[in-house]
User: What shape does this take?
Amino acid sequence: MKNMKKLMGIGMSSMIALSLAACSGNDEAGSDGGEKVTLDFWAFGATNYEELVEEYEAENPNVDIKFRTTETEEHHNGLFTALAAGNGAPDIAALEVDQLDKFKEAQDRFENLYDLGAKDVQDQYLEWKWNTGEDQSGDFLYGLPTDIGPKALYYRVDLFEEAGLPTDPEGVSALINSPEAFKEAGIKLKEATGKPFVDSMEMAYRAYIDASPETYLNPEGELLIEESGNAAKKAYDYAVELYEAGIVGKLDMWTPEWANGVNTGEFAAELGAGWLKGWMEGNAPDAVGKWRVATLPTEFAANWGGSYISIPSETDHPQEAYDFVEWLVSPENQLKSFQSKGLFPSATSVYDMEEFKTNEDEFFGGQVTSTVFAQAAQDIEGSVFKGVKYFPVQQEIMNALDNVRNGGDPEEEWQAAVKRAKDLMSR
Assistant: This one.
């Protein structure tokens, strides 16, 4: 029955994709007598793209863009099904960065944006963000950069003050300037307040792993975590170290308990991406004015999240699709997306725009957090290769950390996680 439901789900996705394909690429006479081009654009999550689509259509009356947005998993599953079938993909599709490597394995199903003019705008974007959108050779570009997720240190002013730690962002950044200093600050806060410094084992683990250029797999698909000194073991050991120091909480992100902890101050710090700011503003009403944001130690400088806009090769109008995508992710429109939905820009010129530099956040006590995340984005040194099985392998390591939290021996749990990862890779 479970398999039957899965097959029915896949079948339904294919039927939806095929029905959309029937509408895709239909052209008719435009208002000025020229050919009117119709483009299907699939995206996910909360963006302001529907507003920008209307703006583009008003400026380009011969272009009709049919925009749809769904949840992240539904979007990527439907797109992958359509691409695999060779029928039903849209003209334009957003790709989340953590899903990107899966789609890179279907390179022939995408237009190379370098063939459509992308070289002309490459210098407008963060180098590491742009490079992540390329293939291994650097000759093929899957998508133009949209938003990013630079990480920073979210911290509770009231708990830092109670612990005698600095409370201004500059002072916090100056004090917590290394992994060792991070731990020392956490111990001091726990002793003074009785509360954990960070919320969860996941956050403690992600401190290092998100910043590592190599994680679990290399581009050849080989497992790296057995190698001596690999990044995953380093991150795992650091998380265990913080836990054994008593400064890691027992919450899990996105649970009701975690959300309540953000709201009421059950922990003092979070190593979060720029998009977390929007979630906090909408879900922690009792915490208004109690959080601030500071830069992380350079060893923890990393990106968590973000997207690209691609053009599947099924399109009948690659150049028209590209012209829209280039316009959509231009610096001026990335500023609009940031102001409207909090999508953090990857176009570096936005960081110097007055509207960006003076964007005060009431939730964060009037702090201009945008400049902190801009600095964090520019501290990132390179892109991170993840690979198709990144998340299954990571889940095995997270299972090991959960077991440690419940009394398991750290080394035994690590070895068990490596074995499970190897078994997973052999399937």
The chain has a mean pLDDT of 92. The first strand starts at residue 28 and ends at 29.
